[in-house]
Predict the structure.
Amino acid sequence: MALIQTSGDRQSSDNPQIWTHLKNAIAASSGFQRWLLERDTQFQKLSLEQQVQRYLRETLENLAY
């Protein structure tokens, strides 16, 4: 069985450029944009980092069902 590393296992500083590019690609996607529009104004004031993390978490939770 493969081990899956989580953010707690590894610092995002291992390769910040990869995370930055991935975060920007996710933020530019139509799925993320639609998801963000469905959120309230206060949520939209969060940092891009926090928004992308929540988007990924919710997307994975939905896929788990």
